[in-house]
Write a structure and sequence with these properties.
With 208 residues, the protein is α+β, with helices and mostly antiparallel strands. The protein contains eight helices and eight strands.
Amino acid sequence: MNTAQNALELRISKELKAKLFGYSIVKTYCAGDVILHEHIPTRSIPIVNRGLIRVMRTEKDGRELLLYYIKAGESCIMSFLGGLHNKPSKVRAEVEEDAEVLFLPIERATWLLREHPEWLDYIFKLYYQRFEELLEVIHAIAFKKLDERLLMLLNTKSELLHSNTIAITHEQLANELGTARVVVSRLLKQLELDGMVKLERNRITLLL
């Protein structure tokens, strides 16, 4: 059994895990794939069994903002709430690191709520976790300078990917921070001058 499956087991019992695999469609994705689009009705809930997913929000003017990550053993609470109330998705989910995802039909997810209190507890814990993460996003936007947010994002990616070297473009970072590429490029250059990062083509290495 791989590490990702163990991560899922840590959060739920073997019985519930078996039902999730039995009821779900399992798909694999490569980095960069989009598994959930905005404004599309939610008919199933993604549960990440392996890999890493980032959840983004796009504004009407085209600007984007990173909301949170979905790690192995976790699900997207926004998808669950949208599917439960028959609402279209308000977020986009993109694969950060090659992933294996279980897609649990919303009717099965609703049935599990009634039959397995453990599943309800899992959902509530995820809801609380995402609420805390969104509060951190709001706090960072309101009170932190953009260079601080950029460094925080790089450190978060480094921790999640277990590597000091991150394969990413300045454009991608700008999208996740909700700003312009030229601004991110300028801030990264200053971080490099300060000895905090090393810049290469489509790669950034944290030095601290």
